[in-house]
């Protein structure tokens, strides 16, 4: 009977050791997977940020062009001012 008890105790220790190793390996795998996903997310985020910065710069340049008076507009305003400044109401 003592032999069986010893074998059961040894088997219990082996089983605990097996499951402890298995959980440790699973935890390590999950951590590695999470780290890889984080790195992929950060790379994608940096790429998206660079793309958005480029689009913003382009939009700001386009807007500044649209809102700045053109040479034709300035010439027209000068002509209009000169024409109407000589008239008295």
From TrEMBL:
Cellular component GO terms, alphabetical: centrosome; kinesin complex; kinetochore
Record's keyword annotation contains Nuclease: no
Sections of the chain in a coiled coil: 31-58
BP terms from Gene Ontology: cell migration; centrosome localization; chromosome segregation; establishment of mitotic spindle orientation; microtubule nucleation; mitotic centrosome separation; regulation of neuron projection development; vesicle transport along microtubule
Signal peptide segment: none
GO molecular function, one term: microtubule binding
Keywords of this entry: Coiled coil
Keyword field contains rRNA-binding: no
Family statement: Belongs to the nudE family.
Designated name of the protein: Uncharacterized protein
